[in-house]
Amino acid sequence: MSVLAQDLRLDANAIDYVLLAFYFVLVLGIGYLARRQVSTSLDFFLSGRSLPAWVTGLAFISANLGAIEVMGMSANGAQYGMPTAHYFWIGAIPAMLFLGIVMMPFYYGSKVRSVPEFMLRRFGKPAHLVNGISFALAQILIAGANLFLLASVVNLLLGWPIWVSVILAAVIVLAYTALGGLSAAIYNEVLQFFVIVAALLPLTIVGLYKVGGWEGLVDKVTAGPGGAEQLNSWPGNQLTGFGDNFLSVLGLVFGLGFVLSFGYWTTNFVEVQRAMASKSMSAAQRTPIIGAFPKLLMPFIVIVPGMIAGVSVAELAGENKAALMNGEAAPSGATFNNALLLLMRDLLPNGMLGIAIAGLLASFMAGMAANLSSFNTVFTYDIWQAYIKKDRSDAYYLRTGRVVTAAATILAIGTAFIASTYSNLMDYLQQLFSFFNAPLFATFILGMFWKRMTPTAGWLGLVTGTASAVAVFLLAETGVWDLPGQGASFVGAGAAFVVDVVVSVAVTMVTRPKPEAQLVGLVYSLTPRETLSRSTTGEDAGWYRNPGLLAGIVLVITIVLNIIF
Fold this sequence. Notes:
The chain is mainly alpha-helical. The protein contains 25 helices and no strands. The chain has helices at residues 3-8, 14-35, 41-46, 53-62, 67-80, 86-89, 93-109, 115-123, 125-158, 162-210, 213-223, 237-240, 245-267, 269-276, 281-297, 299-312, 319-325, 339-347, 352-388, 394-419, 425-449, 455-477, 487-509, 529-532, 547-564. Helix 5 (67-80) crosses helix 16, helix 9 runs parallel beside helix 22 (455-477) and helix 14 crosses helix 15. It starts with a helix and ends with a helix.
């Protein structure tokens, strides 16, 4: 065992193991209870569209609180400091509000079962197939990253072999997702949200106490590698990799805040699926907006512990941090991905340790379950049913969904090895988003607001946009283009968006559009306002259930946080 592995080993005792066992039993119990409500494929894949907004809202945010989010953002906090908050306040909140107010009426109102199915109705089969395949591939790659982190953490914390950790984690997630479908995943995500907060909040409080409060943290960060620049979110030059302030802000606002963010939150079926499980149009609109409230505060329990680790943990502070920031190996052998684990090791007593470990496992399983439940829906409906086995019984597709969930789990075990090659998994994640989400957002936004856009333009724009993001990645990897930090993903996302738009407009000019009658409910200008309106009676009544008002409150808080930090 390496010196670092020994240092990371947590002194877990009987009480910690009892807490872990209780948590696993609870998770599987929820899956078993949810199974009793699954009688059709709609129940399995979309919870029968029956869940209240507060449940889908918390599940919406928990589905995004996977291993990569918790560990990756803590790693970013240790490496870049407060500029990492842009992933929340610029790179999430505006897009989540846009999804709730503008796009959910189209998704929910058209009664589609997935985002690729929306593409099928708007652009036809070629765009549908391209989107279905690219989404399925992305989910397997991201599920693999969640699984790799889970296995490596359990190995380091508890000493279990990597293969045991991988199989145990995969079997538990597979069990409750295959048993109860989306309902099991969503109810577990609500539980996991509270477990994650219960694990991370004490870490922030105890960590700040250790470094002398916020002022003590400011002093230590200012004196360390990276300096005072890590205490202000703007202009974020270290994060973007740009030396020029204007280019850095432009990269953050356009690359992250517009293309990557809107591409992820508005077209990523992992998130949209949670809102589509809501019981009404109003609840579907409120789902991402309710999720935005806890999202606003996540930097304080995810990024701040990373910053504390970067100045207080011996293996990451001083010369170790300086070496890692220069792209070199730290003398201690640690990486920024270890920030949260090392802080847990230093600060938490037994009992609290069990909750923290459960919180980490919860974040990994929430992320992986979200990937699996969206993968099985898209693969079953948009690939298997649409192109391979048509017109079978509903029971057949329900069985297929369960088999596909198992197959996806096995594939995720394979892709975990790709993720293992990255020292900061946020780099990997943002790269995937620039490939898959940025071009899809361009196609979506054009198709939703421009009725003239043609089916041929839909799929050609997607393919060329994705190819341009891959080209930027290859240029950066081979050293032809020097893009340090996460600059390659920002530039790649921007390139994918621009190329997609240009190609789509050019192709539209020389190809035939669909008849307007076929675009009602799919294009903004052709959809009657009453189809997009929400109910204001019964369970949807009350000013506090008004999506527009809730979105306005979130927006004001976001602006204030950007000014303060």
